[in-house]
Amino acid sequence: MPQIVERRYVLTVHPLHAVFVGGALSLFVGAAASDVAYAMSFDIQWNNFASWLLVGALLFGGVALIFAIVDLFRAQQRARGVIPYAVVWIAAWIVGFFNALIHARDAWASMPAGLVLSVVTVVLACAATWLGFRTPHIRGAI
Q1: What Cα–Cα distance (Å) separates residue 77 from each residue in 80, 93, 123?
Q2: Is residue 1 in a domain?
Q3: How many domains does the chain have?
Q4: CA 109 to chain CA centroid, nearest Å
Q5: pLDDT tens track of the chain, all 142 residues?
Q6: Is the sign of the CA dihedral 21, 24, 27, 32 positive or negative?
Q7: pTM metric for this prediction
């Protein structure tokens, strides 16, 4: 008699999706670190670094956002808890986009709003990454 085995723990995000989430998170953290360095040294190059890191983070985050939106339309993924992940990731991307617009201004004009938005973006991206990588418990027979 064949025995049916269901997995109790299933990843929320696909491994390829995870590469883009991790890449975006690391680039957002790099942008925040560059903002902190600019706030401490007032060397304009740190603001330029932050601007470029934000562009890379938004590109990686945009691909991750596409994966998240696609997962919203899959009933199996919605059951696994992808909705909070997608909502927080959308919020992180939007705040990151406004952060990039702030960084597009003159270096002196981008502070302190750029630093505050960078920190908020990192917090949201960390929360989205945690929601994406957590392993939800799925009830079923083993």
Answers
A1: 5, 21, 24
A2: no
A3: 1
A4: 26
A5: 677 655 555 556 678 888 999 999 999 999 999 999 999 999 999 999 999 999 999 999 999 999 989 988 887 766 677 888 899 999 999 999 999 999 999 888 899 999 999 999 999 999 999 988 885 655 544 4
A6: negative
A7: 0.85
Domain membership of residue 36 (yes or no) is yes
Return d(Cα 106, Cα 86) in angstroms, integer. Answer: 32
Does 41 map to a domain? Answer: yes
d(C-alpha 62, C-alpha 53), whole Å: 14
Tell me how far apart the alpha carbons of residues 139 and 142 are, in angstroms, rounded to a whole number: 9
Our separate counts of H helices and E strands in the chain read 5, 0
Task: Provide the residue type at 103 as one letter.
Answer: H
For residue 34, give the amino acid letter: S
Residues 25, 18: Cα–Cα separation, whole Å: 10
Nearest-CA neighbor of 21 among 90, 81, 75?
A: 90
- Residue 117 buriedness (CB in 10 A; 0-12 / 13-18 / 19+): buried
